[in-house]
Amino acid sequence: MSLGCYQTVLFPTEGKSDFSSLNPLKNSQLKGNKISGVKFSNFQVSQRRKCIPMKLKSLLSVDSAVEIEGKEGVNTGSKYDAIVIGSGIGGLVAATQLAVKGAKVLVLEKYVIPGGSSGYYQRDGYTFDVGSSVMFGFSDKGNVIYVLNNYEILESLDLFFGVCLSGEEICNYFLAVSLLIYITWIQIQGNLNLITQALAAVGREMEVIPDPTTVHFHLPNNLSVQVHREYSEFINELMSKFPHEKEGILKFYGECWKIFNALNSLQLKSLEEPIYLFGQFFQKPLECLTLAYYLPQNAGDIARKYVKDPDLLSFIDAECFIVSTVNALRTPMINAGMVLCDRHFGGINYPVGGVGGIAKSLAEGLIDQGSEILYKANVTNIIIDQGKAVGVKISDGREFFAQTIISNATRWDTFGKLLKAENLPKEEENFQKVYVKAPSFLSIHMGVKADVLPPDTDCHHFVLEDDWTRLEEPYGSIFLSIPTVLDSSLAPKGRHILHIFTTSPLEDWEGLPPKDYEAKKELIADEIIRRLEKKLFPGLKSSIVFKEVGTPKTHRRYLARDMGTYGPMPRQIPKGLLGMPFNTTGISGLYCVGDSCFPGQGVIAVAFSGVMCAHRVAADIGLEKKSPILDAALLGLLGWLRTLA
Ligand SMILES: NC(=O)c1ccc[n+]([C@@H]2O[C@H](COP(=O)([O-])OP(=O)(O)OC[C@H]3O[C@@H](n4cnc5c(N)ncnc54)[C@H](O)[C@@H]3O)[C@@H](O)[C@H]2O)c1
Ligand SMILES: CC(C)=CCC/C(C)=C/C=C/C(C)=C/C=C/C(C)=C/C=C/C=C(C)/C=C/C=C(C)/C=C/C=C(\C)CCC=C(C)C
């Protein structure tokens, strides 16, 4: 998840902006305004995971990437094609995509390094991911040959004949056919490896380590499920836990594959750009209609069509919760389809050296394209002239101007802080009616003695011990990532990293005197560690050699997200993705990108939002085809559709 932990003990004062003391790069040297010489230890890739699909190139050397221009370096009066506020993955993808189309872009980042919730920090020889380490959309499967597996074949046959055949009947009857088709290669476009594509667009490539298990669930009634990379292994394991629901399981996950395959076959660009959108409908009518059909639907409703067992439905809730912070009934089916299949299609892959390398590589690539990135640049206002966004002002008083302004701050921050309240467009009012801020997180970054982990421990765990009703409650579910299982170079020899997080509202942490605040952090962290010790790793507490606890206040401050929120979540049951705004806003020249835009939370989701945003902006500044009449018609139609959500 996105929430990072910077040491609140060191930086307890809200609003203080002495960034020199916050340098997360303990091994780097800050030379004036330029960060240089970040060196990572030798990358020792676990031999257990042999397959390394991509080659390491220019990873994590920020000598040229993190070029921080000084006051004199950036020409504040010059006109850029676009200014991007914030260098989260959403902002960086929008910026780099625009830069490769020929735009001159300036990214303004409040912090000292890029990445936002996908950043990193270093302490005592550990390299910690600020957010979690589960990377979707990061495979080499793009424009590839794709193999159908048995379950998809059965599902397609079932669809084709329009009948409900039992799993066993189908298996016997079509075994021979199925085996034949199994080895038939079917050419489809693979387009969902968006992180890989975003890096490749600016000539970057990262070595990744395939994760054999996306997540290991430890759930009530001693339900333990490992989500194996291989789809058939996962489905077999799930069916073995719920043998009476075999058919329902195949049908629910089969429906996810229909969505995934439709998505994966489209060329992904802005759904707000009519020439592209109509073109896709023309080229791939079935796929587009499939997506249009699922657009207003939620995963929980579809699961209930096929599944009756309450524990299995709760399992599907947990599957959805880890990617949307809400249960399946409130998770858009398109998003569920995307994540529940990509983990088996491209698989989850961890970048060697840590997640922070993605943002660094994008920032490097941006500069290579002739664009600029300025750190310690806290945007305080978006400048509006005659109803159009024309520039921004940063906290030291400097102003920058551009044809378009793209905000990677959340919509609440953009419209609540960077613009005056009277500028709140109707569309934003609607958004705030349909979506609320998801709670923030408590995160614990730890270094532990390696021998506390049993051999073959999985990298990611989700723990909810006794009571399904606690799934969405604060401190109810525990997320745990151990990235050193995949990449041992992230910690000193003989140590592992444990990154633990759980939902926590900001309100729990406000108004406490510093001593009570520290005591509360220790108390809650201890309880979480005790639960993990009991469930997973006996002796955990005594194995801790390093520990830092971040609270919602930490996240609000260092990620610049209102209330430290993880992202938007629907206020009530949503109509799938229908109510989620795209990138244009009610203010001419102002665009939003990131997790409060379609399709929502998640690194791959914000990367898609960046791709969409760059396409729409490029059309508006004349770098892509555009039709003003069709634009007006489509934007009107989409605005109207959103009011139905
Ligand atoms: N797979 C995972 O587990 C994982 C890990 C990390 C992050 N995430 C996802 O990433 C998503 C967030 O990505 P994102 O791109 O929307 O944004 P982000 O919050 O990660 O980044 C926004 C950036 O904008 C900067 N910023 C904000 N206001 C600013 C201002 N006024 N002036 C200058 N800079 C400013 C912040 O410092 C930050 O760097 C989350 O929804 C989360 O789901 C997921
Ligand atoms: C326009 C109209 C109206 C219509 C038309 C139709 C069509 C064509 C449509 C289309 C559509 C589309 C293209 C769509 C797309 C979508 C997408 C791409 C989506 C995506 C999504 C994604 C996501 C959501 C993701 C997420 C993720 C996440 C959040 C993650 C997280 C993770 C974590 C937290 C981890 C955990 C950990 C542990 C367990 C430790």
TrEMBL record:
<keyword id="KW-0125">Carotenoid biosynthesis</keyword>
<dbReference type="Pfam" id="PF01593">
    <property type="entry name" value="Amino_oxidase"/>
</dbReference>
<comment type="pathway">
    <text>Carotenoid biosynthesis; lycopene biosynthesis.</text>
</comment>
<dbReference type="InterPro" id="IPR014101">
    <property type="entry name" value="CrtISO"/>
</dbReference>
<keyword id="KW-0285">Flavoprotein</keyword>
<keyword id="KW-0274">FAD</keyword>
<comment type="similarity">
    <text>Belongs to the carotenoid/retinoid oxidoreductase family. CrtISO subfamily.</text>
</comment>
<keyword id="KW-0934">Plastid</keyword>
<keyword id="KW-0809">Transit peptide</keyword>
<keyword id="KW-0520">NAD</keyword>
<keyword id="KW-0472">Membrane</keyword>
<keyword id="KW-0150">Chloroplast</keyword>
<dbReference type="GO" id="GO:0031969">
    <property type="term" value="C:chloroplast membrane"/>
</dbReference>
<protein>
    <recommendedName>
        <fullName>prolycopene isomerase</fullName>
        <ecNumber>5.2.1.13</ecNumber>
    </recommendedName>
</protein>
<keyword id="KW-0413">Isomerase</keyword>
<dbReference type="GO" id="GO:0016117">
    <property type="term" value="P:carotenoid biosynthetic process"/>
</dbReference>
<dbReference type="InterPro" id="IPR036188">
    <property type="entry name" value="FAD/NAD-bd_sf"/>
</dbReference>
<dbReference type="InterPro" id="IPR045892">
    <property type="entry name" value="CrtISO-like"/>
</dbReference>
<dbReference type="InterPro" id="IPR002937">
    <property type="entry name" value="Amino_oxidase"/>
</dbReference>
<dbReference type="GO" id="GO:0046608">
    <property type="term" value="F:carotenoid isomerase activity"/>
</dbReference>
<dbReference type="GO" id="GO:0016491">
    <property type="term" value="F:oxidoreductase activity"/>
</dbReference>
<feature type="domain" description="Amine oxidase">
    <location>
        <begin position="89"/>
        <end position="617"/>
    </location>
</feature>
<keyword id="KW-0521">NADP</keyword>
